Amino acid sequence: MRLFSDMIASGGNTVTTTLSPGICLVYGPSASLSDRGFVSFSGGNFVNLRSRLLSRIKAMEGSRALSMNGTDTNGHAGNSSENQDLLSGIGNSTNIVWHECSVGKVERQKLLKQKGCVIWITGLSASGKSSVACALSQSLYRRGKLSYVLDGDNVRHGLNRDLSFKMEDRAENIRRVGEVAKLFADAGVICIASLISPYRRDRDACRALLPDGDFIEVFMDVPIQVCEARDPKGLYKLARAGKIKGFTGIDDPYEPPLNCEFILKLWMLKLEGRISCGGYLCIF
Predict the structure, then answer these.
(1) Separation of CA 182 from chain center
(2) Which of 127, 130, 137, 197 is catalytic?
(3) Residues 260, 123: Cα–Cα separation, whole Å
(4) Is 197 a catalytic residue?
(5) What are 223-274's pLDDT values in tens digits?
(6) Which pTM was predicted?
(7) Which candidate, 276, 234, 226, places its Cα nearest to that of 123?
(8) Which residues pair with 89 in a beta bridge?
(9) Distance between CA atoms of 120 and 193, rounded to whole angstroms?
(10) What's the CA gap between 21 and 156, in Å, rounded?
(11) Most buried of 46, 47, 203, 272, CB within 10 angstroms?
(12) Model confidence at 21, in pLDDT bands (50, 70, 90)?
């Protein structure tokens, strides 16, 4: 920010930086506490806006927050129908307004020299989704491209730790990951989402969040017999023993994509007595 560069250039002395016509910011070790903060010099009179800002923050703790000019936090005065028309409601969130920033997706993509998108890898447990996701991320890294992997198990360690594996919770799990993936893509990052995501409608809902061409669905077309033979986490064994209920492929369905961008049919390689999957890197 210009303020910090001005302070460095001044050797740490008090600086006054103009933010917009009539508004400046005073800060520095030699400035008194009463001088620090926003200052308006409208009409030739200096007015410390710091107290007004504190009043606004205090008001926000109540049922309604007021800005410096008496409007609400969305910039709307009173309760006129004209102002109410600017507000929207999404789900259980009401009286909200989307705030645009001058730095958008195009600018961020230019900065990163890449296009943000979502690569959604879906398939049965033990089909190789995480292996493919990490291999792809590593390949992109070597090419100087920024990516981030949203792994199904990893997100359940934090963001989605409150969700179970019931159908409704699985749907919410995918919805949340879809929204996060959308943010990554909007930031210009190549987001690789690696989840079983068994239900077609949930994957399609995530696709609908992004512009055409920005959602790339990859189906790990690996037979359940192969997945169960691999079973690196021992989950299939537990499901067969009835210790895990609603396990995809055993007692809960998996709905394969109908119109995905890529289908990976992996062949099996027996290495040191283990079954592993290979041959996927050529796809990318």
Answers:
(1) 6
(2) 197
(3) 12
(4) yes
(5) 999 999 999 999 999 999 999 999 999 999 999 999 999 999 865 333 333 3
(6) 0.66
(7) 226
(8) none
(9) 5
(10) 49
(11) 203
(12) very low
